[in-house]
Amino acid sequence: MPQVTLTVNGKTSTVDVEGRTLLVELLREKLRLTGTHVGCDTSQCGACVVHVDGESVKACTILALQANGSQVTTIEGLAKPDGTLHPMQEAFREYHALQCGFCTPGMVMSAIDLVQKHPDGMSEKEIREGLEGNLCRCTGYHNIVKAIAAAQDVMHGRAQTLAPAAE
Amino acid sequence: MNVVTPFEGIGASVKRKEDLRFLSGRGQYTDDINRPGQTYAAILRSPHAHGRITSIDTAAAAAMPGVVAIFTGADMPDLGGIPCGWQIHNKDGTPMAEPMHPVLAVGKVRFVGDAVAAVIAETRAQAKDAAEAIQVEYEVLPAVATLEAALAPGASLVHDDVAGNICYDWHIGDKAVNEAAFIKAAKVVEFDLVNNRLVPNAMEPRAAIGDYDPTTEDYTLYTTSQNPHVIRLLMGAFVLHLPEHKLRVVAPDVGGGFGSKIFHYAEEAIVTWAAGRVKRPVKWTAERTESFITDAHGRDHVTKARLAMDADGKFLALHVRTLANMGAYLSTFATSVPTYLYATLLSGVYATPTVYAEVKAVFTNTVPVDAYRGAGRPEATFLLERLVDVAAAETGMDRVEIRRRNFIPADAFPYQTPVALQYDSGDYQATLDQALEAAGWAGFEARRAEAKARGRLRGIGISTYVEACGIAPSAVVGSLGARAGLYEVGTIRVHPTGSVTVLTGTHSHGQGHETTFAQLVTDRLGVPLAQVDVVHGDTAKIPFGMGTYGSRSLAVGGSAMVKAMDKIVAKARRIAAHLMEASVEDVEFDRGTFRVAGTDKTRSWAEIALTAYVPHNYPIEELEPGLDETAFYDPKNFTYPGGCHICEVEIEPETGITTVVNFTAVDDVGRVINPMIVEGQVQGGVAQGIGQALLESCVYDSEGQLVSASFMDYQMPRANDLPMVSVATHTTLCTHNPLGVKGCGEVGAIGSPPAVINAVVDALKEYGVRHIEMPATAAKIWGIINASRPAMAAE
């Protein structure tokens, strides 16, 4: 059985996989990182988005073997070791941008990559267009868009702290 | 109401307690659970909509690597069918047709996706590989994929013993009174419409793990359910014949439901039963395509309506005839949706003196249809609010004025409708006024003109609605055919140091109960929110419960908690009276402090809690130790949220693409516990309503193949399809539950679809459009605009 070696959330693992094993299966089944979810079988929903070498990737669309030698970050690896949340995680909580929580890990990982790729900041419309690859059935995206808009200011250093949601 | 600092009680938009685990990847959904020695199930499904199974050959599959067992319907002759929870009676008093729904198909398959065989193997991939190696021979039969096809003379029968494919032919209202009213009418508006079939598509696919302990003969089912106790009851008593004490059902974190996870599904029975056979845990997780072809669908009504009016535009009578698609088998609540959750709402917010409704439920070779967010009330609201707009157009009346003229007045509550329900409270003029103001209704024509100058067609639409939720008084629903009571159960467990665990029979799958319910406790008992935890979803922990659907969790489940807290406070006051050597009547309780009235003698909440569990100085002769109370609450009536939704759209004539540019919702959901969560519920509901109105189309071909069976074919609303949604509330309190709450889970999906379509029709009014069926896709609208272009050019 082929082996894959990759670093996930800072920890390097070598795992036996079948050739057909998807990255998301490796993460969930072999490494027991179940924060990354599977919501569809056509790479449409984005619940499985992780970062591979800093880029957001749908973990259901690549084979585990393709991630050999990569640095992978999942939702479990976002917060600091002392538990301090990433600004995007904090913004999702502050703006009530999650309900059932199932799309949330992929949504957060996509949103972080989206913000990083737009250093000048995004308008509401640009955020909505940027979320093309992520489905949420609970929120209607209203609060997700607001959370990302608030988080980008912190991530780009334009605000020291997250703007509080209106009461 | 009590006030604690910082304010965390009723009315506070506190952040959710559940968020941290979901944001950290520490949620535990069913597929995240693995049991020691676990095997995996794959289900072989029928590729045909209708056929006779002539042979099943599992020999080759059984020899494949990793295969533990293969089961077909023939292996489970002792199992019961999957039951339907609500018996409807025909007009003539006879009961509905209720054909057997076997766990695995026996003899015939009746829809694409019908379960034919289950393979149990060491890995998921091995199970799937082996399922593909099973050889099934079918004699393919003609399929009836639509209501029209199922009702055609000589149509193929889905169930050989159900004549004409009719499940039931039911009615409500006084037919003679109704007919007489039409004779006196100055104007009768006739209107036909379809309520489009939808696929719920919670983001988490269904999953189930069966576990069996051969030493105790205990079974455990982990499942993606909105109501674990209901699943235990239905599966245990009717399908597997297991007594409750030998069957535990756990519904852990569940990734959205919207109704589709209420029902008892075959896969739950398969994995539980199979675990007992192979003596190992068995896990099944749906792939998304499997979800499309097995999760119960929603809506799918075809309706003809007639509205009688007098010369002043007052409604005199409404007559409705609806065909409702049941799919191939009766799902758990399917039969109640087009009857008691639909036709009883056909009075709407209007004082229509007589309503008569006839509903035929029909079997087809499609996935079973059952409750989906709103369940019956969106169908009633869509019909009424489109019909009222058509009536306004045909009489030349203003759309707002025709509604005002026919509203049930605010001083008419309690209001008895002609279709069984008694609304307890509401103020439809007030929610209308607030919405008109918030949406800038008066300034719309200027915006339309401005849009026209940019080459865009702009329209505005309104919907005023009422719904019935907080389901439901047991005696009432029992008299209407429900086979269960619909009370709820709450336990308040005060621990020795004063912190609190709440056990509730409802289930949270996105609604934020862990926060909202904790706020109830904080508000009443004065215990800080951080010291209150809410537990749900496990029949081994929670005494009983009927689960979450029909916006019932707060109205019914929250009321049970209030009753339990009443018992806690009553007992705690007796303990406090003993400690302070006062009479119970003199002990007041407020903000976590017990005080002898008019004195400075006090005892804290923590002191009383500790005394209850360390009863050294205690009235032990007359009071048991402990502070742990359970209450069952059976509601006295449904609750009746209502309100007004206003939608503004722009259409690009060159493409037919509709953009929702403004959406305003003003809802009366009764008392609001957490405004942030209520707004989120309404925004999400509106998104599903806009999805139904503009995007989502569930398409079967004539042979019964679901051609929209993936996210590539079924258009789920994405971020860029939706607007920001302005949400406000206007409160009239529910008069019959202790919290005054009505429910907010479904109002968004109920009020919004007609507001959207009314706006689209308004935008297209220069094209003479009377109605456009949902979803109003770009192709449909482009076709309308394009078809009328030559005529317009010729003018």
From TrEMBL, chain A:
Pfam families: Fer2 (PF00111), Fer2_2 (PF01799). InterPro entries: 2Fe-2S-bd, 2Fe-2S-bd_dom_sf, 2Fe-2S_ferredoxin-like_sf, 2Fe-2S_ferredoxin-type, Beta-grasp_dom_sf, Diverse_Oxidoreductases. Residues 2-78 form the 2Fe-2S ferredoxin-type domain. Keywords: 2Fe-2S, Iron, Iron-sulfur, Metal-binding, Oxidoreductase. It comes from the Bacteria. The keyword Ribosomal protein does not apply. SUPFAM superfamilies: 2Fe-2S ferredoxin-like, CO dehydrogenase ISP C-domain like. PANTHER family: OXIDOREDUCTASE WITH IRON-SULFUR SUBUNIT. This is (2Fe-2S)-binding protein. It comes from Belnapia arida.
UniProtKB/TrEMBL annotation, chain B:
This is Xanthine dehydrogenase family protein molybdopterin-binding subunit. Gene3D superfamilies: Aldehyde oxidase/xanthine dehydrogenase, a/b hammerhead, Aldehyde oxidase/xanthine dehydrogenase, molybdopterin binding domain. SMART domains: Ald_Xan_dh_C. It comes from Belnapia arida. PANTHER family: ALDEHYDE OXIDASE 1-RELATED, XANTHINE DEHYDROGENASE. Keywords: Molybdenum, Oxidoreductase. Residues 24-142 form the Aldehyde oxidase/xanthine dehydrogenase a/b hammerhead domain. InterPro entries: Ald_Oxase/Xan_DH_a/b (IPR000674), Ald_Oxase/Xan_DH_a/b_sf (IPR036856), Ald_Oxase/xanthine_DH-like (IPR016208), AldOxase/xan_DH_MoCoBD1 (IPR008274), AldOxase/xan_DH_MoCoBD2 (IPR046867), AldOxase/xan_DH_Mopterin-bd_sf (IPR037165).
